[in-house]
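Data availability (excerpt). The following record was deposited with the supplementary files.
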Amino acid sequence: MNSFRRKPIRNVRARNAMALSILAIFLAGMTWMQISERRRALAVEGKGIPAGTAGDARSATGEFNRLLHERGSITFRSWNGVAYRMDADTEMTFLPGGKAHMFEYGYALSRYHGTYRIDRQGTITASFPTFKHQWPVMLLRWDSTSLLLEPKATGDGLVMGNRGAATIREGQGSYWPFRPVSPKDEIEIRREIK
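Predicted structure:
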């Protein structure tokens, strides 16, 4: 008797597609980690994230958790990720275990330690006890450039916090969204957290 059984065509096609993908990566000389690094570099350079992921809260939350695990922290900077280093910048760092840290640039640099929670829908609630102000609830999203944080409630603009005043230059843009800093800046910021 012949023990040969036909395999469903869809299984063969799926297996072949996977094999071709792996072969293409191997021939290109790239590991999965290198592909991930390249994808992140494109996001930092502003060249975009592949279509189909932008705006998806679950994908954004997954990317947030991946970066947190990979880097040990993830820092978002106000003003669309641009460091003006004047008296209106804010940098918020998320650390493992629900810990958070915030730098508030004003007349002097203020540091706040706190906590955060993130849910599956990308809602982030952060609390900084010595900040003495309520930090707005934020939404984690992706756009064609990178991950971003936006206030959940409309109308939340510049968070003055403990700054006496804020200088905003013409053409500077908007305080929101916050965007991730580069891996190099991430290391510097983490070094400054005390």
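Summary of structural features: The longest strand covers residues 109-118.
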